[in-house]
Design brief:
The protein has 382 residues and is an alpha+beta fold. It has one domain: L-amino peptidase D-ALA esterase/amidase (4-Layer Sandwich). It is built from eight helices and 14 strands. The strands form four sheets. The chain has a six-stranded mixed beta sheet. A four-stranded mixed beta sheet has the order 1-2-5-6. Strands 7-8 form a two-stranded antiparallel sheet. Helix 3 links the parallel strand 5 and strand 6. It is globular.
Length: 382
């Protein structure tokens, strides 16, 4: 069995999705969104932030535990890049906790995110956590004698041999070492490789917004790993796309929502941890704008961090901090909501039909039908 490993911010594995770099995004299809995006419309519009992927795709046909098919990976989000160990202030929020995000008790206690945020499949959290520690120890990048990485997950067992434990430390190292700024691949990449949302093929998506507060301009960037929702729930720009493109009668789906979504919000606005908790909670509203209701079986866990106030974690001195007043946060709240909504739709639009375990195939959202529904409901931008 051959595992394909991609570890750069633009997908380079032709066998994964040779059209990835030319595949349209939601705005290209005429989906209207609110707010002004950054130049890349990606989480990497936050200066200094890097994203890397390892994408594992191998095998086909009947599921054989330990042998495949493999449809999984790792996503690494590094707030200040891999060469800068300066912690960032952070806050997190669990909308529904049928999921995992390690390291969050220390984030809540300390107010800092020390290192990156990693996303993978449910049964690879431990491997990714341990490998992230090994990488930091090897590079001498630990700010203290211990490390408590933030690793989150969603379940890809419909398409992936999730009990085969195919994610290895080398894949985590590759995601970190290959992390870059610039454009970010979407859809069937990294931890999102085998994910499904609204019963369409889904995965990784990103977006950003620029916000003016008083005399300053700030960026809010979002990256999601989307694996949630029933087809009937899906809304795009307010149009009932899921109801208009129902599941085929030959394909039965679950009666209840069982999926999950991880949302990572980054900003360069100078915010303190309690304010970042408020930002993380607003991601819920962006999720809701796409139709999700966060069911009992869903793991909907969000983290927000700020690259402002560099050096704030110094243990050697008293530091002076900047913070936006609470009265200045409404624009950041709006930006979080709008960027979260667009990141989810981008994940849907970028994903391509994928076959996996036992030959099961999950169809991509058809772009022509999406445009037709938006036009029908007067929501097509062009």
């Amino acid at each position: 069995m051959r595992l394909l490993v991609c570890s750069v911010s633009l997908l380079v594995c032709a066998a994964v999705a040779s059209s990835q770099t030319t595949r349209p995004r939601a705005r290209d299809l005429g989906v209207p969104f609110e707010g002004t995006p950054g130049p890349l419309n990606a989480i990497t519009d936050v200066t200094g932030l890097e994203v890397g992927f390892s994408t594992l795709i191998a095998g086909e046909g009947k599921l054989q535990v330990g042998k495949g098919p493999v449809r999984t990976g790792v996503t690494a989000i590094l707030p200040r890049g891999k060469t800068n160990g300066d912690p960032v202030m952070a806050g997190w929020f669990s909308l529904n906790g049928n999921g995992e995000m390690t390291g969050t008790t220390w984030v809540e206690e300390s107010g800092f995110l020390e290192g990156g945020v990693f996303i993978t499949n449910t049964h690879s959290v431990g491997t990714v956590r341990d490998a992230a520690i090994e990488w930091t120890v090897t590079k001498g990048a630990t700010p203290q004698p211990w490390s408590l990485p933030v690793v989150a997950e969603t379940w890809d067992g419909t398409l992936n041999d999730i009990n085969g434990f195919h994610v290895k430390p080398a894949h985590v190292f590759a995601a970190i070492d290959g992390a870059r700024g610039g454009a970010v691949a979407e859809g069937n990449v990294g931890g999102g490789t085998g994910m499904i949302c609204y019963q369409f093929k889904c995965g990784t998506g990103t977006s950003s917004r620029r916000v003016s507060v008083n005399d300053a301009t700030y960026t809010v960037g979002v990256l999601v790993q989307a694996n949630h929702g029933l087809r009937s729930q899906l809304l795009v720009a307010g149009a009932p796309v899921g109801a208009e493109i129902p599941l085929p009668s030959s394909r039965r789906g679950p009666a209840d929502e069982l999926g999950s979504i991880i949302i990572v919000v980054a900003t360069d606005a100078p915010l303190l941890p309690h304010q970042l908790q408020r930002i993380a909670r607003r991601a819920s509203l962006g999720l809701a704008r796409t139709g999700a209701t966060s069911g009992n079986g869903s793991g909907d866990i969000f983290i927000a961090f700020s690259t402002g106030n560099p050096g704030a974690a110094s243990a050697q001195r008293t530091v002076q901090l900047q913070m936006l007043p609470n009265e200045g946060m409404n624009g950041l709240f709006n930006a979080t909501v709008y960027a979260t909504e667009e990141a989810i739709v981008n994940a849907l639009v970028a994903a391509e039909t994928m076959a996996g375990a036992d030959g099961r195939a999950i169809d991509a959202l058809p772009h022509d039908r999406l445009r037709a529904v938006l036009k029908q409901y007067g929501r097509l931008a062009r």
